C-alpha cells in the first residue's frame, strides 16, 4: 500500500474562522455548497461534516478540490484546509 493510496483515504480537515468570515456567500453559494452552508452571520460546515462545533470538521477526500476552491476564493481567507 503506497503512501499516496493512504493519503487518498484521509479526510480533509477544514476550519472556518467565524471572526474573519464576512458572510459574502461565495463558499456556500458558489464554490462548495456541498460542504458549506449559511450560518448566523458567518458560514458553517454542514452538520454531517462537523467534528467540533459548526466551524471545524472533516470532509471526505473527494470533496478536497471543492473545499480548496472555496478557500482560495474566500476574500478574507477565513477557510483553512489541512
Ligand atoms: S467565502 Fe469566506 S467570507 Fe465568504 S462566506 Fe465563505 S468563509 Fe465567509
Q: What does this entry look like structurally?
A:
The chain has 82 residues and is α+β, with helices and mostly antiparallel strands. It is 27% helix and 20% strand. The protein is globular and about 30 Å long. The strands form two sheets. A three-stranded antiparallel sheet has the order 4-1-5, with helices on one face. A two-stranded antiparallel sheet has the order 2-3. The protein has one domain (3-81): Alpha-Beta Plaits (2-Layer Sandwich). The protein is built from three helices and five strands. It has helices at 3-8, 26-31, 64-73, and strands at 12-16, 36-37, 44-45, 56-59, 79-81. The chain starts with a helix and ends with a strand. 27% of the residues are buried.
Low-confidence sequence ranges:
none
Rg is 12 Å
**Which structural class should the secondary elements be placed in?**
alpha+beta
CATH C-level class is Alpha Beta
Domain count = 1
Q: Total number of helical segments?
A: 3
Average pLDDT confidence is: 92
Strands across the major sheet, in which order?
A: 4-1-5
Helix content: 25-40%
Q: Please name the CATH architecture.
A: 2-Layer Sandwich
Shape: globular
Number of strands: 5
Topology pattern, helix = H, strand = E: HEHEEEHE
Q: What percent strand? A: 15-25%
Q: Any idea of the CATH topology?
A: Alpha-Beta Plaits
In angstroms, what separates the terminal alpha carbons?
Answer: 22 Å
Amino acid at each position: 500500500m503506497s503512501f499516496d493510496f493512504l493519503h487518498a483515504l484521509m479526510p480533509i480537515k477544514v476550519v472556518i474562522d467565524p471572526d474573519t468570515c464576512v458572510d459574502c456567500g461565495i463558499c456556500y453559494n458558489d464554490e462548495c455548497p456541498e460542504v458549506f452552508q449559511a450560518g448566523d452571520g458567518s458560514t458553517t460546515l454542514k452538520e454531517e461534516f462537523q467534528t467540533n462545533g459548526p466551524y471545524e470538521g472533516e470532509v471526505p477526500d473527494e470533496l478536497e478540490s471543492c473545499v480548496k476552491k472555496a478557500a482560495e476564493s474566500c476574500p478574507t481567507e477565513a477557510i483553512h484546509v489541512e
